[in-house]
Amino acid sequence: MTTEHFTLHDVVAGVWAAEADLGGASVGNATIIDAGGKTIIVDTFMTEVAARELRRVSEELTGNQVYLAINSHWHADHTNGNQVFADVPIVSTRETMERIIEEMTPKGLAAWQAEIERSIASLQDSADAGEKAAKQLDQLRHFKNSADIFELTLPDLLIDGRLVVEGERRVEIETRGKGHTISDTVVWLPEERLVVTGDLCWNGIHPRMHDGFPGAWAEYVEAILAMEPLHVIPGHGRPSDIGALSDLPEYFRTVEILIDEVRAGADPTKIPAPGASVNWKGLGRLHDGLKVLADR
Ligand SMILES: [Zn+2]
């Protein structure tokens, strides 16, 4: 099956990871679960156009209408596509719902639109007309279209702990509170030992930490590791196995130490990638995160 905005991975029978194409309209990953006559979507992408494709593909793959959507956390690249799923229940925690409301006020939306306009203008003005600039412009136009037709669509089935979908395939939706954000939710398929982590896991990529809590994040990942998953669908990067998670607790514990070093005067941009993260992509995200967290 060809898709324009993401790459589909067959993770186990009836479960597909929709991996966001780099620099495209999706930005974060989504997951499609065929729970035997019930199609469940985890996360809804950054834009309406990508979410619409996600819905079309999921209904083609499973032969069923979407039954339920889930927001793993409040970030726009996991929730902006919610309007495509306005006719089905959307599950999240109350904190996640509240943060979406705070971000996507008319004022917040206008600020986002202004930022997109500025970025488009500066790209068009720049002498750089290469392939990279063209791709960036393409992505920004998708963002602009999405912002122009944005309809705030909030989660309306709130969990505080765990929600279980029973049927041919058991699907457990559960939260342990904060980690990557003030409130993160994971989806666990006990039979298949498959976990959808949202942005608690970035596979082989330095995670965005601006809204995170490194200590709690390490503990959250440890709790997921203790479930001994065989399959891991991360919020960013390719689906994998437990190896995508195993280095994360030490990474976030090191981040806690590095934050103290930055507070004591260390230059965050000079800090090398800690331990096993030397081969990860996006070191700049670590540096930005350290700066933001040290100032918080
Ligand atoms: Zn996120």
Task: Kindly summarize this structure in a few lines.
Helix content is 38%, strand content 22%.
Task: Summarize the structure in words.
This protein has 296 residues and is of the alpha/beta class. The protein is built from 9 helices and 12 strands. A 7-stranded mixed β-sheet has the order 1-2-3-4-5-6-7. Helix 4 (106-125) runs antiparallel to helix 5 (131-148), helix 6 (214-226) packs antiparallel against helix 8 and helix 8 crosses helix 9 (283-295). The longest helix has 20 residues, at 106-125. It is globular, with a radius of gyration of 19 Å. The model has no long low-confidence stretch (mean pLDDT 96).
Indicate the CATH architecture of the largest domain. Answer: 4-Layer Sandwich
**Strand composition percent:** 15-25%
What is the N-to-C succession of helices and strands?
EEEEHEHEHHHEEEEEHEHHH
Which ions, cofactors or small ligands are bound in this entry? zinc ion
Largest sheet: 7 strands, mixed
Note the overall shape: globular
Please give the radius of gyration in angstroms. Answer: 19 Å
- Count, helices: 9
Give me the count of strands: 12
Structural class: alpha/beta
**Which sequence of strands runs across the widest sheet?**
1-2-3-4-5-6-7
CATH class of the largest domain: Alpha Beta
- Low-pLDDT residue intervals, each spanning 5 or more residues: none
Quickly count the domains.
2
CATH superfamily caption of the largest domain: Ribonuclease Z/Hydroxyacylglutathione hydrolase-like
Distance between the termini: 45 Å
CATH topology of the largest domain: Metallo-beta-lactamase, Chain A
In which range does the helix fraction lie?
25-40%
